[in-house]
Amino acid sequence: MEFSNPTSIWLIVGLILMVAEIIVPGGIVILLGAACVIVAAALFAGIVDGATQSFTLWFITSIVLLLSFRHITQKMIGGDAHVDNTDEEMDLYNQIVTVKADIGPGEHEGRVTFSGTEWPALGDGTEIKSGSKVRIICRENIGLIVEPYVESEPETPN
Is the whole-model pTM more than 0.90? Predict the structure, then answer.
């Protein structure tokens, strides 16, 4: 096997790509490698001749293989498919947070800590002292609207 022979080069590159699928899973690299092996076979059979025809055949074969077999390789390999909550307002609603800077009275803005970040916060008009717990009602622009959090006592059976 000569390494200067285009057939050998296409075959080696194809095999390397197919083995690389182990390192880079996803089903694409193996199909690109298979296209290289097909080009090597076409060169060996004399169907194509030259670099331009080889690259054109590889490009067309790669596209056909990807469009034809991508869904099959995805089923075999799987993948990480999960859907996160895209409504940020729902992540905020009803969370209990700590007041960092006094909120109120009136429309005096204070600060609360939520998700490791300090946020500007407005209350219900009453004064809420630093260190108190509050419940997030909603978000308004970049600030949070909060209300004092009162821990409910557990119900006692009669």
Answer: no
